[in-house]
Amino acid sequence: MIRIAFAAFATLLLGGCISAQSWEATRLLRDIEAGAEPSSLKERTPDPTRQEMEIEYDGRSMLADLYHPNQEIGARLVLVPGFTPEGKNDPRLVQFANSLARTRFLVLVPDIEGIRELTVQRGDAVHIADAAHYLAELEVEQARDNLDVGVAGLSYAVGLSVLATKEPHGEEAVDFLLGVGAYYDTENVLTFATTGEYQLPDTGEWQHLEPEHDAKWLFLRGNLDILEDPQDREILSEVVDRRMRDPDASLDDLAPQLGEEGRSLLDLMINEDRERVPELLAEVPESAREDLEALSLSARDLSHLHGDMILIHGREDTMIPYTESIRLAEAAGDAELHLISGFSHIDPGGIGLWGQWQLLGGMMDVLDRRVQ
Fold it and tell me: Which of left, alpha, beta for 39 (phi over 0: left; psi -120 to 50: alpha)?
């Protein structure tokens, strides 16, 4: 996890940049690293209170956990994790929410079905908007009027969080958005997941980075429901299980049993030629293409997020290339973009001194959204 070296603060001190905010950001990062273990932030702050509640809006309902900091609240924040079958009860997520609450955020963690099922479902954006609207209207002790409401999305949940701000009640409620490991164009993400190729926005030059092996198989598993043939769904489910256990497992006995739609999805997954991706995408079921287009942000007007987006992305991300956050920042306009050296997807293990400094800047931008 994150390790903040003393040398980083010596650099800050020599540059005359030490402030109460930077020390608080440092304590926040150390507390995230510590998890449930003791930390300086825990010593200085009361224990947050975690309370389960039911969110209801326009006939929809879902469970959520509210983390109250038990001190004066500086801002409200909906925290949306990436894929986790444990949902809001994932121990790492619980500790992260507690850390944010200790820095005076009132944190709401919704329990979203698609996240638990490891699928990106366009409809989940509405649930995120519901959560933001609920949190904005919630009356709690130690909260001033008109506090900023933010949504923090991790990984694929960043796209859903952006889409939530396009919902009328979401746009009304959300004042800022924090994204860690964001995507912008779903075709770009799919190209990278299957071939390891990504394109630099400024020069158009193609780069290669070995992608996370599980990324494309998670995508396939999350889209099996689009297939009409139950036999195709069953066979591809076995394909996913087999290849996630062993990247080199043979599919010779399974591939010939697939129908036309199932085979088109498998061909897309095993392709390693970036130039063939558009052609192979055109062959997959229309419902799959429609889902990808609905989740993509590249054709949407994001001007309503101008100046209200903080993006953090690792330069060594093997799930979603960092260039996606660059594109998203440009589309929104005036975003705070932090590209972190040594940072992978959402796990900063192995981060070096320069990366620590960069990450510290990102945390300071987050803390700046609070009422002081």
Answer: beta
Per-residue pLDDT band for 18 (boundaries 50, 70, 90) equals low
Please report, as a single letter, which amino acid is at residue 347. D
Residue type, 158: V
The predicted pLDDT at position 349 comes to 55
Which CATH number fits the domain 6-185+296-367, given the four candidates 3.40.640.10, 3.30.413.10, 3.40.50.1820, 3.40.50.300?
3.40.50.1820
Q: What is the pLDDT of residue 7?
A: 42
Distance separating alpha carbons of residues 225 and 259, to the nearest angstrom: 15
Distance CA 130, CA 53 (A): 13
Residue with tokens 């987050």: 366
Extended beta strands in 34-104, E state:
49-57, 60-68, 75-80
Report the amino acid identity of residue 171: E
DSSP 8-state symbol, 346: S
Summarize pLDDT for 216-268 with one digit per residue, the tens: 898 788 778 778 899 999 999 999 999 999 999 999 999 999 999 999 999 99
User: Which structure tokens are listed for 118?
Assistant: 């490891």
Residue with tokens 């923090």: 152
Counting every residue written for the chain, the total comes to: 372
179, β-bridge pairs: 153, 311
Look up residue 217 and give its two tokens: 């198989």
Residue 264 Cα distances to 17, 258, 324, angstroms: 55, 9, 26
Read off the DSSP letter of residue 345.
Answer: S
Q: What is the model's pTM?
A: 0.90
pLDDT in tens, 73-95: 999 999 998 888 898 999 999 99
Closest CA to 215 of 198, 197, 192: 192
The 3-state DSSP composition of the chain as helix, strand, coil percent (nearest 5) reads 45, 15, 40
For residue 356, give the amino acid letter.
Q
Domain with CATH 3.40.50.1820 in the chain: 6-185+296-367
